[in-house]
What we know:
Elements: H1 3-12, H2 29-32, E1 58-61, H3 68-79, E2 84-88, H4 94-97, E3 102-104, H5 110-119, E4 124-127, H6 133-138, H7 140-160, E5 164-166, E6 169-170, H8 194-213, E7 216-222, E8 224-226, H9 239-250, E9 252-255, E10 263-267, H10 268-280, E11 290-292, E12 296-298, H11 300-308, E13 315-318, H12 322-329, H13 338-344, H14 352-372
Helix pairs in contact: 3-10, 5-7, 7-8, 9-14
1,4-dihydronicotinamide adenine dinucleotide is lined by residues 61-62, 64-68, 88-90, 105-108, 128-130, 132, 146, 150, 168, 170, 222, 224-225, 233, 235, 237.
Amino acid sequence: xxxxxxxxxxxxxxxxxxxxxxxxxxxxxxxxxxxxxxxxxxxxxxxxxxxxxxxxxxxxxxxxxxxxxxxxxxxxxxxxxxxxxxxxxxxxxxxxxxxxxxxxxxxxxxxxxxxxxxxxxxxxxxxxxxxxxxxxxxxxxxxxxxxxxxxxxxxxxxxxxxxxxxxxxxxxxxxxxxxxxxxxxxxxxxxxxxxxxxxxxxxxxxxxxxxxxxxxxxxxxxxxxxxxxxxxxxxxxxxxxxxxxxxxxxxxxxxxxxxxxxxxxxxxxxxxxxxxxxxxxxxxxxxxxxxxxxxxxxxxxxxxxxxxxxxxxxxxxxxxxxxxxxxxxxxxxxxxxxxxxxxxxxxxxxxxxxxxxxxxxxxxxxxxxxxxx
Length: 373
Ligand SMILES: NC(=O)C1=CN([C@@H]2O[C@H](COP(=O)(O)OP(=O)(O)OC[C@H]3O[C@@H](n4cnc5c(N)ncnc54)[C@H](O)[C@@H]3O)[C@@H](O)[C@H]2O)C=CC1
Ligand SMILES: CC(=O)[C@H](N)C(=O)O
């Protein structure tokens, strides 16, 4: 007998179950737990996913980081500006505040999160709030709270309100005992950072809520993401973002990883497109709920050589950060994303030459504008 059916029979006999015996997506613990958040057994979890239009009503948590504003702009083009709400615990700059709906949302405040989802009739949630690898090692207790307790709140609200939920994982969800070259979707995952541990937890908890409560959970393991118009948030791959700014501005860059450190990387446009494509993929096409996605892998030396083709006077020096280097040495060198390419047609657009040209065009034009002003 399928596990789900067996569980349904067991749960159906539980006291306090709705008379209909219907299978609610609400987490079982809410009926049996002693949590102050316990919901009356006769609560009717009418799915609030019907937003009255055929467009998703989107909430992005942690939206003011390196990726969230780009995601909001990308999704607003697809679903309409007013259907995508950006949120964070920080004050947005004026151009972001006036660029579309923004709301304060602290994922550690479960009631606040629940209120936002109900009052705004949210149907899709992109959960970006997190402390990344290096900053997480500098503040383990905060990283554990945001990346784990915050995730639990998001999972419960998503299950209670039948949301389609995207949670990004990372190359950092693997560790030194994982195969590194290449790293497949399914293999040993014993990361050595609180960031990586919290992301493996997110993958496992999201998949549990999917199989146990029917939550439409979808997850991509992002490589190091490179963006031109936003600053990185304190990770190990941040060098690959900062190098472009420094190369154009100063003609030189001091790299905090060894020249031979190979890591999977991706341009932000590919990242955001992969995120939307997996969220729009028909459920029946998904043989998994957590996928690796890949574009390229390079070392600081590879990147410097590509930059030299455009900026012949560019100089790179190395001042290795031992914390970041130890993290990078435990991460994948190359990512196997064949399942994403097979199941939902993933295909990257930007390889290293295209990345460098695109980033320099942005920074170069930006610098030219700066000189003109
Ligand atoms: N940028 C990258 O290269 C990669 C990012 N990812 C994942 O993508 C997501 C977004 O990444 P980034 O934008 O780079 O992160 P980031 O570190 O730049 O931004 C994270 C945001 O979370 C917010 N935040 C912190 N505590 C919060 C709380 N209690 N409630 C609500 N928001 C809170 C911060 O204010 C910040 O704006 C993260 O989950 C990250 O793990 C995964 C792999 C690579
Ligand atoms: C690859 C990531 O998850 C992030 N950029 C980090 O370096 O922590």
